[in-house]
Amino acid sequence: MEKKEQEMLEKIRSSSGELRVPEALEPEHVKEMLEKRDREKEEEKGEKRRRTVRFLRSVRGRQVAALAAGLALVCLAGAAYTMGAREASGSPEGESYHISTSSGGAGPETETESGKLTAAGSYDDIYACLEEYQEAYEENEPGGISGFHPESREVTAESASPSGAEESSQAAAASGAADYAGSYSDTNIRQEGVDEGDVVKTDGRYIYTLTDEGEISIVDTADGMEEAGVISEDRQILEFYVADSRLMLFTYAVDADEEKADYDIWSSGTALVTYDISDRGAPRKLGEVTQSGSYRSSRMVGDHVYVFTTFYADMFAEAEARETYIPQAGGSLIQESSIYLPETDSPSQYLVMTSTDIKTPDRIADSKALFAGYGELYVSNENIYWYEVSSGYDGFGWEYSTLIRKISYKEGRLEAVAKGSVPGTIDDSFSIDEYEGNLRVVTTDENANGLYILGPDLEETGRIDNLAKDEQVYSARLMGDMGYFVTFRNTDPLFSVDLSDPENPQILGELKIPGFSDYLHPYGEECLLGIGMDADEETGATGGVKLSMFNVSDPSDVQEEHTLILENVYSADVLYDYKAALIDPDRNIIGFSAYRGAQEIYYVFSYDADKGFTCLMEERVNGSSQRAARGLYIENVLYVVKGNIIESYGMEDFKKTGDIIL
Amino acid sequence: MKCDAEGFAALYGTVYTDMYRFALCMMKSSHDAEDAVSEAVIQAYEHIGSLRSEESFRSWIFTILANTCRRKWRQQEKDQEKAEWTFFSNEEESAPDWEQAVDVRNAFAILAEEEQLIVGLSVFGGYTSGEIGEFLEKSPSTVRSKLSRALAKMSLILKE
Lengths: 662, 160
Known about the structure:
A: 662 residues, mainly beta, 5-stranded mixed β-sheet, 42% strand, globular, B: 160 residues, mainly alpha, Rna Polymerase Sigma Factor, Chain: A, 2 domains, 9 helices
């Protein structure tokens, strides 16, 4: 860590040094409180076992998981302990060091593996996993606990996928917005042809934005900006789609048992609600379907919406209490044969996936669930890939591998295809990409990186090992027969890889430049845009946000054609969330919001091979919203949307033309 | 490990000020921070059997505390949906604690939740980026770059 940062940490520390701790938290008080608890416990000794069980239930699998995650953490740090449910009984292992592996055979090797997914024969098969876990927990064996992952996390950007601009344009035309048929931008997505939900959408005339209140405001841009309608669900809306004259949104399922919902903040499921918006002033609800688990991500392809949720099983459930450990879809338990057993010995959650045809929005078309550890998602044009990290201790250090499960989807039908594993871990969904039936995966590890090509059944067909030693993959973009990825230590080598022969991938070039790119986006035929941070070549200390344009017309000799560093701009959402980018090579605009000082600024750049980057716009983003800022254009107007505030700019001179507060 | 309330209190005594400061940086009010610490203490005490050595006490209890804070965030989000959340009353409540450190609190306020955790665990928990990475399921380099960006953001507010 650089000196400046050390000083900052010290400063934060010292300035909070004078804080007084409330009296109730003084050790003396805490001691009394704990002693009182002990006494109460003693009095109820006869009931002790029941209490323990109740406590374990009340924390449910995930909090236990949270504790266990701490365990894994400290184990890694070299301090050994494991967690047990037993109360102060001596450990049979004494102070022994526990080595735990959660890898179901995919261990710390450098081998890839593949096979078939295992469906549950019955719910009892699934319960057997819980029993195994409970046993491990009670016996204080590490197996069932290590690698067990903490509670729900924010939906993070994974692989994305809207139906592409063409398709939405058609949709807009069909919905009667034909008069405004013209160009407009769509959500920046991971996979062309696979739409993704977002907090701001447009159909070429109306802008739909999720407000601070968690409602969707519909703004007509036909003549300036005017609020045309609102969709309010009485519960927080999370993300939505607009297609044709329909709007599909995600929200929490209403738990019939209010008290239960209050008590267990994870218990409520996720609902997909479909509205007819042909009359924007009076949206009409058409249907709603629900599934277990918290909203994680979704995709829309054709008429089908695919919804992915994370459902945490109550690992201490009684066998009969199916609903506490078997996920539901459409109000009933998912069938045994559609649930796939875990590939690691420490499952904690299910990835629940459903498909719904928006023409029949009251009915789930198909559902599947993977019993799994914590993982992430990539959706190609034909398949859903779920990948989770598995770790193993080989006696010297920890090694990581990634387990991948593949489910195909077509017209709403979900089918398990195969499973596989590769060494190392996957940086983000841009490091995993399907092309012509093959899956290409760029992985990174503490000290080595690799590229693997897997066939349709996830069997390895080719690989490049031991790339860029001691560096870490920061971003990747695999495009058809070519792939590019960036690793970083102090400088930023951009590698270009020829992927045209799946059995023999080849490194073609390597370009070293300062800083690194967090996000790569193709820009026209010959260029690749990188957005990242500038960094000092000596120290690796980061400076401002950096734009780089790479000329990739000759992949064996990639050139950094131009760069632009935004001084004092220390971060931008696009570095973590590709949906925050507005990039359109045809119109030659690159837009995103970034943070300078205490302000959020929306930047628009154009690019010219001779002149480099030109800043077209640099305007403060207004709106105190917790929502992320998005830029979009409709014909010749750029809209910067942040929750309740939309500001418009003419695209000839990028001067502000109007705003609306919703 | 095996220990009674007295032994636990002794270990707790070595870390409780940092625990409270950490919680205060994570939570929006001093009341919530106090709750978070109390809850973490009870959980830790109930599970002290899982702790193998005194040396790990600090990182062990900070992990529990960090998860308690995360759970409370989710709870608050949920509450917020149910009723209009009264930020201002919380503001008043917590103000007295922060007389001397109001800048730090403001600096924390501009960070995203994850950044708060990363900075908080670094400063008060004494964690390395590798350990935080395990906790957040991110690579150490991601944690490092997020930490450095978070600190850059904070430095703007803490300048003088």
